[in-house]
User: What shape does this take?
Amino acid sequence: MNGTNMDNMNPQQIEEQEIDLLELAQKVWAERKLVFKVCGIAVLVGLVVAFSIPKEYSTTVTLAPESVGKSGGGSLSSLAAMAGISLGGSSGEDALSPQLYPDIVNSTPFLTELFDVRVKDQKAEIDTTLYGYLTEYQRAPWWGVVISAPFKALGWTLSLFKDKEEEGEGKLDPFRLTQEESTTAQALSQRISVSVDKKTGVTTLSVMMQDPLISATLTDTVMRRLQNYITDYRTNKARHDLAFTEKLYNEAKANYVKAQEKYANFADLNQNLIRQSATIERERLQNEASLAYQVYSQVSQQLQMARAKVQEITPVYTVVQPATVPLKAAKPSKLMVLVGTVFLGGAGAVAWILFGKEFWKKLKEQVFSKKQD
Assistant: This one.
């Protein structure tokens, strides 16, 4: 459309437009000292801002989960998986989809379980729980403190007129969090990110913290707890079956030992007796011991199968990229902050020269003329 407009314009109009652009450029050039001055001030502001923002360190781990369960689609399911499409033919063991991992990590129970994790900073000056670190040792830029001060004062004033909340037993209750606990959990969820590649199933976990050692430590802890959560979920039924089978095994073993002891005691006491009643009782006790042994043997086999089942369905994760202490801060990027402030300062100065100065002059003239009238 711009090309069509240019074609419809006559040479005189094109020349006038070029003259207008030249006039604007000359107008800015004439006020170049103002532009340079504003850019210089912007450099100072950018440096102050860049060095006022606390450093944040990011640690990333990559997990390649073992494929569990058998799909019912055969080669078709394999092709669909390569295309990032799930046919939904997986077994019950795969009910926990990898796409739910981010929701699991950001869930309130998962986050609150991390509150008691011990963390130490790289300078060995902090040794506390994660909850204590997030509530007491987080640094903020100075303007954040200035902006939040009136709201804190207002909140403190309003709290004087409210009834005091009943103090709990000091135990964390995920069902009923305090305001501070809820705020801390939300802040922690923003520092933990999980992404899953739909095609490969590779899970990437990242944690952002203000200390590199705490970032690496927490990343490793979150990774292991996520693995444990998934393992417990997928092996839940098998572990219950295993516990029930172990109970049956112990009962069958006790019955077998008891039947053996009865038979051995009776045989020892009636070795030289040839009475028919003694013979019948001996055969009965022997049959009971044999039956108890058969039950014991069968349950023992079932116990081994139950243990093998738990081991079979337990997912195995390959840690492609383990957690390591980051050497450089992930943010803020001081160069980007500096460039951004200089650009905004320069653009603002140019806008003032081209439009703002004239607008301000006209506004002052209108106000002055009204006062004279």
Notes: The longest strand covers residues 57-65.
